[in-house]
Amino acid sequence: MSRAEREPLLVVDDVMAEYRTADRVVRALDGVTLTVGRGERVGVVGESGSGKSTLGLLTGRLLPSATRFPRGGVLVDGEPVLDLPPDRIRQLRRERLAFVPQDPVGSLDPTLRIGRQLALALRATRPSRADLVALLERVRIREPERVLRLYPHEISGGMAQRVTVAMAMVRGPDLLIADEPTAALDSQVREEVLRLLFALAAENGTTVLWLSHDLGGVARHCDRIAVMYGGRIVEDGPTAEVLAAPRHPYTASLLAADPARATAGARLRVIGGTPPVLSGDTPGCAFAPRCGSADAECGGSRPVGREVDGRTVVCHHPVGAGVAGAVAKDGAGAPVPATVVQEEAGAPVPTAVVQEEEDAR
Fold first, then answer.
1. What would the DSSP string read from start to end of 226-272?
2. Is 104 within 8 Å of 183 (Cβ atoms)?
3. What is the pTM of this model?
4. Long-range own/partner contacts, residues 319-325 (CB < 8 A, 24 or more apart)
5. 297 Cα distance to chain centroid
6. Residue 291 in 3-state DSSP?
7. Over the range 91-102, which residues count as b (16 or more CB within 10 Å of their CB) and which as e?
8. Beta strands 25-36 and 10-20: pairing type?
9. Angle between helices 157-169 and 114-121 (to 10 degrees)
10. What is the 3-state secondary structure (H, E, C) of 296-332?
11. Residues 174-217: pLDDT tens digits?
């Protein structure tokens, strides 16, 4: 294996990104750090407003022109994305990167037939009609000859997403960024499209960065999971291990609030409060106002990443790492014991935590 093959494909290093207008500043990324190896399948999860979409757009430098980057950098295969001249960033997007958006129909040109749009995506190779038919067959679209003649508004959402997947994968990209690609689809079509997307990525050796709310889908399709909150990755590790035994209080709370994990008749836990909208530096942990185990250190000292049980956790008091007590607050603002949140998340609860909670009662 060459040195280039051993080096990570994507490195996001302590990036801060701010959307600036005449009267306000919104810090969407607050020192986000993520490294993705070649061929990896990484799922980035978190509530709306956590910074997932901004992270995805950052990878291809597709953020609005008003965005400012006070610090940090992004490397794609060693190339400094934020510093590239316009012609080089266009070449990088065209040859190395691919994007699958949330809204498949909205991402297609409503004035052009599907065949014309596919031909434009392949214009460097001057595709024949047979090539276009083969492309649609590859993404399992029935009657491809007919579909090539249709406009985007004449096909279903699932079919439109298959078309966008075909256009994204046709050049064999090194890195695919998929931002909630199945959010607008029903459950059956959603899983079909996901299986197709990851199968094509595996066939091409493409690295996948999937931005999602679907914890179950991430568990099925991704090797690694990165949990995002307040513009930072707060827990990052092997998917099965993180979902089985979360170490960040936010990860445990997110799992406990997942409807797919709820048992019949059980009350679904909610995370009290709302995700933060940052406008500048925060003195402590962004999750502290919603965390049931937050103390003075959490409110006054910004946590840094540490290695805990084979994953990186950005927390002063990781769950199950010798710290007992509540890990979140419920909808009424009352602390929820660690045993309750971890059990409802389907994670094992250390004996020491159970004993200390019983002693406290």
1. EEEETTEEEEEEEHHHHHHS--SHHHHHHHHT-GGGPPTTPPPP--S
2. no
3. 0.86
4. 319/246, 319/247, 319/248, 319/249, 319/252, 320/245, 320/247, 320/347, 320/349, 320/350, 320/353, 321/247, 322/352, 323/293, 324/352, 324/353, 324/356, 324/357, 325/292, 325/293, 325/356, 325/357
5. 29
6. coil
7. ebbeebbbbbbb
8. antiparallel
9. 20
10. HHHHHCCCCEEEECCEEEECCCCCCCCCCCEEEECCC
11. 999 999 988 878 878 888 999 999 999 999 999 999 999 999 99
Query: The tokens 């047979």 sit on which residue?
Result: 130
**What pLDDT, in 10s, does the model give residues 53-112?**
999 999 999 999 889 999 999 999 999 999 999 999 999 999 999 999 888 888 899 999
Alpha helices in 172-233 (DSSP H): 187-204, 215-221
Cβ contact 332:272 at 8 Å? yes
In order along the chain (361 residues), what is the average pLDDT of each group of 10 residues? Answer: 73 96 92 96 96 96 94 96 96 94 89 94 86 93 95 92 92 94 82 93 96 94 97 97 95 90 79 90 92 92 93 92 47 47 44 37 41
Q: Which amino acid is at 161?
A: Q
End-to-end CA distance of the chain, in Å?
57
Q: Count other Cβ atoms within 10 Å, centred on residue 254.
A: 25
- By residue count, the chain amounts to 361
DSSP single-letter state for residue 123: G
CA 4, CA 56: separation in Å to the nearest integer?
Answer: 23
Tokens (6 digits) for 68:
């400012």
Which residues, in sequence order, are CB contacts of 239 under 8 Å at separation 6+?
Answer: 43, 218, 219, 222, 223, 224, 225
According to DSSP, residue 151 is labeled -
Strand 41-45 and strand 207-212: the pairing is parallel
